[in-house]
Amino acid sequence: FSDRGFQRYELPRGAGKIASADTFHLFGPIQEDLKDLGLDLPNIHHEGILPSVAAADFGAYDGFVFTRMFEGMPNIVLEMSQHAIPLILAMSVA
Length: 94
Known about the structure:
- By secondary structure, this protein is of the alpha/beta class.
- It has one domain.
- It is 17% helix and 16% strand.
- The chain is globular, with a radius of gyration of 13 Å.
């Protein structure tokens, strides 16, 4: 299964290139190689799947970017809203 059509990888890739002094952490499963996705930059780190979003400490983060274009019920967005950090959500136009 590839989620390349649903994920907007160009956003973290572009941000990583433009804001090279900043650090970006990617959470969740990524089926493809980071290099193939253009995400093999020194300031982009794939952290994998979080066992508990509610228990995670996001106090050091400036925001959360949700890059999926299509999601039935985006539970992660609801969970992240409880951490009181700004959210940026991808928009899908049908």
